[in-house]
Amino acid sequence: MSTAEQKYARTLPGITPLTKPFWDAAKQHTLVLQRCRNCQEYQWYPKAWCSHCGSRSLEWTPVSGQGTVYSFTVIRQVIDNAPAFQADIPFVVALIELAEGPRMYSNVTGCKPEEVVIGMRVKVWFDDVTSDITLPKFSPA
Amino acid sequence: MNAEDYIGWAAELVLKHSGLSKSDFDGQGLGVAGMAWPHAEIWSAEVAQNLGLSPKLILRADRGGMNGASLLGQAALAVNAGFVDLVLCVGGDSPMSITPGTSIPTWRYEEDFMKPFGMMGPNSIFAFVLRRHMHQYGTKPEQLGKIAVTQRQHALLNPNAYLKTPLTLQDYLNSRFIADPIRLLDACILVNGGLAYVVASARKAKEITDRPVYLLGFSELDNYLHGSRNRPDVTFTGTTITAKQAFEAAAISHRGVSFFQPYDDYTIAVLMQLEDAGFCRKGEGGRFVEQTDLSVKGEVPINTGGGQLSAGQPGMAGGFLHIVESVRQLRQEAGERQVKDARIGVVTATGALSYGVNFVNACTLVLGVEA
Fold it and tell me: pLDDT under 70 in chain B at which residues?
């Protein structure tokens, strides 16, 4: 185990059969969303059928990684989450409006928290936090 | 004391208050709410055993903040159908006594798609909504602060309220940010506690009391997405729909409302619901709060017992607070915080903040002193 992995003590996502394709793609540095073959809509978070039309004909589809900040918060206190996040405070969690439609929570990095504004354009990057898990995050485009 | 103790305590209190006995509820209805306190799958049956009751019908709510209101709506349906005459509804929770790491998660998706990015529970989820409300409408911290200050004043008049320290606007503005722009004093205070109420048919109610409180309107809605499924306007809650329906069912106008008890896990929840329930136009909640006396002596008394912000939020039983306070007000039992000539009250209940939006559900109740 590398030194970096030994030190990663933040919450890690669980992986289920439904969500595995998302995490596999992230590990390959690709952002994917479920897209419905029936109605062409995208959805996020992963669901077992299309929340737009009810079809189960969903396909994990690569998306552009482009988005804008719909809203955000600057976390200033750790509550009900791993104490390791204390080292990151203050940090930004944003609700990113992806170009393809849905909104996704993630971090905005690469700028100071006070520089984040609603409407700013961001692009995905991939944080290989452990050898198993890569988290898609965003930075100013 | 934990949730089970509080449930037993609340059940005892409501029997004393109503003059009913435990045996009156055998072969009747029992309503049980969910909890954050770890519990087994068939929790409702466990409560029946713990209370020594043999109900003909069990009603169950797993709706978060909407638990209390959901049980009331379900009880009304059962009573109106003539299936039972009486329903005992109990709620209790002990969020302050949960061993860290053992509480029931609110959502499956929170573990996988929120916590890994450092989301810190409801404070952080509501921060997104508050920031949008400020961005779209210019809502100011002083306006939110007035809500916190007013409800604290009400708590000081309520013997059962948890917080007893007077609060000024400056105290509010000085309180630290948790998930910016949510401040510590924007958030309710978690407590351990229990509440209960009894629902009866109109006929049965008159045998119990000469001051029954009638359910005049009830409306609920889950998963309200304002505008679009993928890109809803998160500043609108489901109260937008449920208040309109409940007001219509009760045939009341806003002018006839004696008090408003909106679900108040956060000050912005109160402000948004003043808008969504139609007391003012969308986006004008801030100005409405500034210009309106929200105290028990004012035009629109809000959360007259202090609400969850100051009386306390007993976990998943928090939504019972607004119902019980309304009943006390309408029965003229609210002591120093009594709203004069209280005749019609409106309660909202909302539960749990969904992914990327706001409250996953909403319920509006209209209660009154006449059928």
Answer: none
Question: Of B135, B178, B355, which has the smallest distance from its Cβ to A77's Cβ?
Answer: B178
Radius of gyration of chain B (CA): 19
Q: pLDDT, tens digit, for every residue of B277-304?
A: 999 999 999 999 999 999 999 999 999 9
Query: Rounded to the nearest 10 degrees, how much is the dihedral formed by the CA atoms of B161, B247, B250, B25?
Result: -40
Size of chain A in residues: 141
Give φ, ψ of B132 to 5 degrees. -65, -40
pLDDT attached to residue B104: 79
B138 conformational bin, left if phi > 0, alpha if psi -120 to 50, beta if neither: left
Q: Which residues contact A106 (CB under 8 A, 6 or more apart)?
A: A93, A94, A96, A124, A135, A136, A137, A138, B117
How far is the alpha carbon of A76 from chain B, nearest alpha carbon, in Å?
A: 5
For A58, phi then psi, to 5°, come to: -105, 145
Residue of chain B minimizing CA distance to A95: B356
Q: What amino acid is encoded at B230 in this protein?
A: N
CB B309 within 8 A of CB B332: no
More confident residue, A2 or A53: A53
Helix B122-137, helix B267-276: angle, nearest 10: 50
A34: tokens are 């479920």
Backbone φ and ψ for B9, nearest 5 degrees, come out as -65, -45
Dihedral sign (CA B53, B55, B61, B65): negative
Separation of alpha carbons A78 and B17, rounded Å: 42
pTM, two decimals, is 0.97
Query: Are B128 and A118 a contacting pair at CB < 8 A?
Result: no
Q: Is the ipTM of this complex over 0.90?
A: yes
Query: For B197-239, what is each residue's pLDDT tens digit?
Result: 999 999 999 999 999 999 999 999 999 999 999 999 999 999 9
Dihedral angle sign, alpha carbons of residues A114, A118, A120, A121: positive
Closest CA to B266 of B191, B187, B345: B187
Task: Assess contact for B300 and B309: CB atoms under 8 A.
Answer: no
A88/B118 CB distance under 8 A: yes
User: How far apart are the CA of A123 and the nearest CA of chain B, in angstroms?
Assistant: 16
H-type alpha helices, B265-349: 267-276, 285-291, 307-310, 320-330
Q: Which of A73, A109, A115, A120 to mutate to test the interface with B (most CBs of B within 10 A)?
A: A73
Taking alpha carbons only, the member of B212, B211, B196, B155 closest to residue B335 is B155
